Amino acid sequence: MAVLAKRPWELADRVLIQTSGLPKLQDLSKEIRLLHMQHGFNDDPIVCDYVVHHLAKERKYVAISYTWGDSTPTREIEVAGQTVRVHENCFQALRQARNYYLPTVQIKDLWIDAICIDQSNPVEKSLQVQSMSSIFGRAHVVAVYLGLDETTI
């Protein structure tokens, strides 16, 4: 009998990011939360606030797609004055987006599913997932983060 290896993208194995103090969305299918990033350098703490954005309105933001990586949140960021533990790849994606997009194209607002969607609310999660084509389609930039380069040459 073959034993299947665990796949990192299986939801059952994921430890959800715990967020508190999320601003309420009035229309779950037409509004999203964005992270408004503060400036920082490579190893500075990631500090941001939430801002609610209606998808019908014009606003420049970066939508980030990333590989999940490890299943347990181990890194800390600050969101709206609260410490939030995030997965390593989420942390690295945010850090690289902050280090690149803030100084080059001066976009401070980011959307990343793990933090911008209330993961403990199944209704919100379902409606926001259904809106992902609009979320990514209306972004000024879509960034894809595949992980740190761990190859040895």
What features would you highlight for this structure?
153 residues; alpha/beta; seven-stranded mixed β-sheet; HET; HetReg/Transcr_Mod
Describe the overall structure.
This protein has 153 residues and is α/β, with parallel strands linked by helices. The chain has one domain. The chain contains four helices and seven strands; from the N terminus they run βββββαβαααβ. The chain has helices at residues 88-104, 113-116, 122-130, 132-138, and strands at residues 31-37, 47-54, 62-66, 75-79, 82-86, 109-112, 141-145. The protein has a seven-stranded mixed β-sheet with strand order 5-4-2-1-6-3-7, with helices on both faces. The N and C termini lie far apart (37 Å).
In short:
The chain has 153 residues and is α/β, with parallel strands linked by helices. It has one domain.
